[in-house]
Design brief:
InterPro entries: NADH_UbQ/plastoQ_OxRdtase_su3, NDAH_ubi_oxred_su3_sf
Shape: flat
Order of helices and strands: HHH
Radius of gyration: 26 Å
Distance between the termini: 70 Å
Protein name: NADH-quinone oxidoreductase subunit
Helix content: 55-70%
Strand content: under 5%
Structural class: mainly alpha
EC number: 7.1.1.-
Keywords: Membrane, NAD, Quinone, Transmembrane, Transmembrane helix, Transport
Number of helices: 3
Largest sheet: none
Pfam family, one: Oxidored_q4
């Protein structure tokens, strides 16, 4: 029974710290709301971007291929994130061949994604 109490008391510490963090965050937001000046005018409530007054409607179409470029960037970023830890483990004794095979499997999946993007003509600038 003593082990169970120790187990749940560790969660109680986490819960108390979480509540303290939420209280600090809520207190900062409340202090900000109470201390800031608030003088709304029609000019202040006007939507703008980069200091330029809006012209026309706010709705615009964008091409789906830009999202695909974003996904390709994420693929390359994830690839780079996994390459650095792999390079550090590769030098460790006993991990050489295993990590080499794992990296080639990982790079094969990345290459398949790039090949798919190429076949769908995502990588062309036309």
């Amino acid at each position: 029974m003593g082990d169970t109490n120790d187990y749940f008391s560790s969660y109680a510490v986490v819960a108390v710290l979480l509540l303290i963090g939420i209280a600090i965050f809520a207190g900062a937001l409340l202090a900000n709301r109470m201390l800031r000046p608030s003088h709304p005018t029609p000019d202040k409530l006007l939507t703008y971007e980069c200091g330029v007054d809006p012209v026309g409607e706010g709705w615009a179409q964008s091409q789906i291929r830009y999202y695909v470029f974003t996904y390709l960037y994420v693929v390359f970023a994830v690839d780079a994130v996994f390459l650095f830890p792999w390079a550090t483990v590769f030098a460790a004794p006993g991990f050489g061949l295993t990590t080499l095979v794992e990296m080639f499997v990982f790079l094969a999946f990345i290459a398949l994604g790039i090949l798919y993007a190429y076949r769908k003509r995502v990588l062309t600038w036309t």
